[in-house]
Amino acid sequence: MKVRIRFSKEGNLRFIGHLDILRYFQKAFARAEIPVKYSEGFHPHPLMSFASPLSVGLTSEGEYLDTELEDSLISESGEEILASLNAVMADGIRVNSIRRLPEGQKKKGSSAMALIGQADYRVTLRSTEAQALSREIWISVVQHFMDQREIIVEAAGKKQAKKKKRDEAFEADRINIRPWILSLHAEGAGVFTMCLSAGSAANLKPETVMEQLIAFAGLERFKIPGESGERVRDLWLAIHRLDMRTEEGVSLSELGEEISI
Amino acid sequence: MRKLALPDEVLLKVEKPARYIGGEVNSIDKSEALAAGEIKVRYCMAFPDVYEIGMSHLGIQILYHMLNTREDIWCERVYSPWVDLDAVMREKKIPLFALESQDPVKDFDFLGITLQYEMCYPNVLQLLELAGIPLHAEDRGENDPIVMGGGPCSYNPEPLADFFDLFYIGEGETQMLPLMDAWIANRETGGSRQDFLRAAAKLPGIYVPSLYEVTYQEDGTIASFQPKEPGIPACIRKEIQKDLSHTFYPEKPVVPFIRATQDRVVMEIQRGCIRGCRFCQAGMIYRPVRERNMEYLLDLAKKMLSATGYDELSLSSLSSSDYTNLQPLLTGLMEECAKRHVNISLPSLRIDAFSLDVMSKVQDIKKSSLTFAPEAGTQRMRDVINKGLTEEDILEGAAEAFRGGWTKVKLYFMLGLPGETEEDMKGIAELSERICERFYDEVPKEKRNGKIQLTASSSFFVPKPFTPFQWATMFPKEEYLRRARLVKDTFFHQLNHRAMHYQYHEADVTVLEGILARGDRRVAPAIEKAYRSGCLFDAWSDFFDNDKWMAAFDSCGIDPDFYTLRERSAEEIFPWDFIDIGVTKKFLRREWERAMQGIVTPNCKQACSGCGAATFGCGICTEPRMKDSESSVPEGEQ
Ligand code: SF4
Ligand code: SF4
């Protein structure tokens, strides 16, 4: 039985990298005594994959894990599986939905990773000064920002360009990210929600959007500079992933069917 | 959400922040009981090395969970902050904190530091300093935690005596809780720190260094070692858990988020070793060997796998092949593990038909390598060290393995053993060559599963307290290197040298380890000096800085040669002689003499040699054995 599990990763678990979360889930399934199918070969490993890795420091309530369970579990409902998993979870991580995925067709593009087209985020500016600005001001900043036809990112593109062929580099240097910002709202003082293009075709990071927004408004002082050599430079933001969606905007949690007995 | 001692900007700056956040599966949070005032003892258990190493240590898991079975005790953990965090903590004045509560260690009642290897001594001082606890026991006040040490290095605690309030000598299962009770009682009656230390010193296994006085002879050796006051025992007998099938074992070990060095369930199947190799400290200090009951282990394995979800189970013991019911135990475990997709790993197995059969079931033959520890290259030398392994055993084991499809072989040797001759050194390469030749004899060309790949590595021998070789002299660094080069050269002249790879360990570390292992109280200032000059994580070769250490000895007026190159007489009082491990000094001396004559001593299963450990009345000493040639009454006792 192929299933997709939605989980949240919050609190102190934000310091655990995604490979460790994968190892964590392998053990959690074993503790919950939910048998996961293993790959063939001399070193079988549990069949498990994530939709999209979440960087260290970020929290989320919309992470997805695809796995295949042994059919012996048919006698349990989705609720029961969730309950037994949540009984063995560490503080900061919860599973909150499980859906059965269509069986058989091994067609490419049905994995969570391949399906992703959009991701929703909630981003908070940590600067107390930014939080002191009223919501109205932020709403108007966002409106003008979104009214632009082009938002050109230079530096962010350069890194990507390195991987590409030389002749494309010039083009890749300047990327218009405006089409990839599907929505952006000021929710409160210094708090924003946004829906951005995600996945293999176009992947826009919330920190890139915020950099542009701050620069557009001339409020760079909200960007507390990180020390040079710091692994994570975006400490001025608290980023929380809300959900992941398909290209069409359907939440990954809505695909597949409920598991009931 | 649990609070964190480190702010985000620090946690996101350092490598592997998971080392510092706690909250791991099966870790124990008693913050509510603490807030309700129900906790009487706050104990912080420390491993003076990085998290991934410390988390792999079984002893801490045992004591952590054992202390936490008591509702009025909250035991937490701390590991050495890695160099990146160390710098930040000093710069931002962030005090060392325990993982569970994230509270400063200085607020605890106890800081217990396990001492597993000498090279971590500077890290002990790092923990104290970052915690804000005075380095010297004598400078500590009523509000400082009691700093206690334990683990194998506390069998010679003297080089660290200045820094510890007390040492626990022996196995932790027996006296840890009585010690905690003594502390509670002392506080309830309004006793001082000094009152507690005096009371503790009267408990079995507890050594309070400040209550003893050492005097020295003109030649620098110890003249006397005595308690300063009446009522304090002159001799401290190690603590031992006699019955290992009816004792505490952590059924729910803590599971780290990040990969630890031992990323698996570790199940100790027995403690101690029957073999008595003459260089081996573990073989002596853990005598007598005590096995855990097989049914107990089968049940324990299930519980631990269910509670952790690990996909690997490792059996821990000094010499697994000597476990009486190994065959049925493994059969039972393999059955259980197959159901759960769990692998079994079996370190310290002797290579024979049985172990090869087991290994072929649990490992990928093509990828795994066979490990032999002949320790010495010639039979003569193996007799000197009492390694009951003949060349025939090794070659036959290898042949059996080659027929079974193995092609990778690892060999472990020691160099610089007492009485070692050039022949013994060359023997390392020659034995390796004979193993290669055996491969070509044994496996016909068409059946060869690739070429043989042999790796031989040698470490330099360091004499340790409580071994027959505690009287041995060491060599200067240059001499170690000369020996290693001679071995390397001999390898080069072997027919199959292309199939063999030889590597040797650093010689600097060997000399330093030698000083610290057999050091006395006078070494302490040099450890402190080395730490002050920047020595830290010396067990990591990237960080080890020999020049700083040598400068530290020099500036403290300590002659390293006194500890390494001096001949020790039969009568000399050693710094660790006040500890009674059961095995008598007389037995060790007899073993030293037999070593010099190349006479082998039987292992405990073959015959009792009357080492003295029978005084504990447990384990192998009380079991019938093949031939009871000698009485098991320890020598030196009436
Ligand atoms: S076999 Fe020898 S080296 Fe190994 S633990 Fe036993 S005594 Fe020590
Ligand atoms: S007393 Fe005898 S049987 Fe017991 S540990 Fe010593 S030598 Fe072995």
Q: If you had to describe this structure to a student in words, what would you say it looks like?
A:
The complex is a heterodimer of chains A (261) and B (638). Chain A contains eight helices and ten strands. By secondary structure, chain A is an alpha+beta fold. Chain A folds into two domains: 123 residues, Pseudouridine synthase I, catalytic domain, N-terminal subdomain (Alpha-Beta Plaits), CATH 3.30.70.580; 130 residues, no CATH class. In chain A, α6 runs antiparallel to α7. Chain A starts with a strand and ends in a 15-residue tail after the last strand. Chain B is of the alpha/beta class. Among the domains of chain B are: 230 residues, 3-Layer(aba) Sandwich (Rossmann fold), CATH 3.40.50.280; 45 residues, no CATH class. Chain B is built from 21 helices and 19 strands. In chain B, the strands form six sheets. A six-stranded mixed beta sheet of chain B has the order 2-1-3-4-5-6. A four-stranded parallel beta sheet of chain B has the order 15-16-17-18, covered by helices on one side. In chain B, α15 links the parallel β16 and β17. The radius of gyration of chain B is 25 Å and the shape is globular. Classes of the chains: A alpha+beta (261), B alpha/beta (638). At the A-B interface, α1 of A face α1 and α10 of B. The site of one iron/sulfur cluster has 9 residues of chain B, from α9.
Sketch the topology of chain A as an H/E string, one letter per element.
Answer: EHEEHEHEHHEHHEEEHE
Write down the overall mean pLDDT of chain A: 86
Described by its quaternary structure, the protein is heterodimer
Would you report the number of β strands of chain A? 10
Distance between the ends of chain A:
13 Å
Largest interface: A-B, 34 and 29 residues
- Text of the CATH class of the domain at 8-237 in chain B: Alpha Beta
Q: What is the 3D shape of chain A?
A: elongated
Structural class of the secondary structure composition of chain A?
A: alpha+beta
CATH superfamily of the domain at 8-237 in chain B: Cobalamin-binding domain
- How large is the radius of gyration of chain B? 25 Å
